[in-house]
Design a protein that fits this description.
The protein is an alpha/beta fold and about 375 residues long. The protein has 2 domains: about 180 residues, Glycogen Phosphorylase B (Rossmann fold); about 170 residues, Rossmann fold, CATH 3.40.50.2000. Helix content is about 45%, strand content about 15%. It is built from 15 helices and 13 strands. The protein has a 7-stranded mixed sheet with strand order 3-2-1-4-5-6-7, with helices on both faces. Helix 3 crosses helix 4 and helix 8 crosses helix 13. It starts with a strand and ends with a helix.
Length: about 375
């Protein structure tokens, strides 16, 4: 099977799951990755899909008639035909919608993964409403990374029988416990400082922990964009500069080491004012695979990835006091945290193995060729 896989960027620290997806598909298929923006412009070696003049005209006409125009479509069609692509797998519904006219013209099956914002953010839904309807008709399968995303897609008119729920998985060889690692007095949060990840709520909850246990620490890893400035200001306002560390972007290996030495993983995910929601956050699954209990919210796919009172604790969105109480509970009860962490890894091994999740997508892709 020759499969073309799309992604918006070739390298993005927050999308390592797509990099892993491409690598795992390469074990049993010929993979042709394309990238750059909602409508892919380049192949894996960064060569433009269209001739340079066509690419320039595409950029010009995109402003007038949109991403799909004769100049942009030409390069993608040529690439798919020359490489005799059997199936196209799109990451994100927005990209999938732009691939519909091309796949339709070439009679190539199309699978699309909806990861979160592409199925929840109000601006995107309004902008792509018509395109999504055409996507729902043409796509062979629509893959939702959580049950909540599936419900959203159905509400937009997607046929339920085309939707398959397949969350991203975790490589449990990369994220695993280390029994010899000493647990520090720290909580860990990993992710972009996006509104939907609720970093300000996490800091406010942690503040209640520090008031009782001044030695407690919170490490927040992620790119310094979004709400970072507000988080930094809140930390100063609450006199937490000695207690909260902003590490910036870390490698997966560095994050794995932090997960092995932390008490619990914390993330107060919320529905952003613009409607943006999480799918099933990969960092939460990685923490669970590392045998960390997770303290988070009843939000999106988190409700499935974290089993309340067994692999972690879930509170209502914006329930800062509830989150703080569970952080205190695990800080004071390390054996309970350890027991929950063991259950968390077992949950991941049973339901979220990366190889099994990719195998499910592979089966769907192959079924379109029968």
């Amino acid at each position: 099977m020759k499969i073309c896989i799309t992604r918006t960027k070739k390298s993005s620290y927050s999308e390592t799951f797509i990099k892993d997806q491409i690598a795992l598909f390469s074990d049993f298929s010929e993979v042709y990755p394309v990238h750059t923006g909602r409508f892919p412009e380049r192949c894996e070696n960064n060569t433009l899909l269209s001739p340079y003049l066509f690419w320039l005209l595409h950029k010009t006409f995109k402003i007038i008639v949109g991403r799909n125009n004769s100049f942009s479509n030409y390069g993608m069609k040529k690439y798919l035909k020359e490489n005799k692509i059997d199936v196209v797998l799109c990451n994100y519904g927005t990209t999938g919608s732009h691939m519909v006219p091309i796949c339709k013209a070439l009679n190539i099956p199309l699978l699309v993964i909806f990861h979160g914002h592409d199925a929840t953010e109000n601006k995107i839904i309004n902008q792509y409403r018509t395109k999504y309807q055409k996507l729902f008709v043409y796509a062979s399968y629509l893959i939702a990374v959580s049950e909540e995303i599936k419900v959203k897609l159905i509400s937009y008119g997607a046929p339920a029988d085309k939707i398959v729920v397949i969350p991203c998985g975790v490589d449990i060889a990369k994220f695993r416990p280390n029994e010899t690692s000493k647990k520090e007095n720290q909580f860990l949060a990993v992710g972009r400082f996006a509104v939907k990840k609720g970093p300000l709520h996490t800091i406010k909850a942690f503040y209640q922990v520090v008031r009782k246990y001044p030695e407690a620490k919170l490490i927040m890893a992620g790119s310094k964009g979004g709400l970072y400035s507000e988080c930094e200001a809140l930390v100063k306002e609450l006199n937490l500069t000695e207690s909260v560390s902003f590490t910036g972007i870390l490698s997966p290996k560095e994050i794995a080491l932090l997960m092995q030495t932390s008490i619990a993983f914390v993330q107060h995910s919320i529905t952003a004012p613009n409607g943006d929601m999480e799918g099933t956050p990969v960092s939460i699954m990685e923490a669970s695979a590392s045998q960390l209990p997770v303290i988070s919210t009843e939000h999106g796919g988190i409700k499935d990835a974290v089993v309340h009172n067994k692999t972690g604790f879930l509170v209502a969105e914006e329930d800062v006091d509830g989150m703080a109480s569970y952080m205190l509970r695990l800080y004071e009860n390390r054996e309970e945290a350890k027991t929950m962490g063991i259950a968390a890894r077992q949950h991941i091994e049973h339901f979220y193995l990366q190889s099994k999740q990719i195998e499910k997508i592979k089966v769907l892709a192959e079924s379109t060729l029968l």
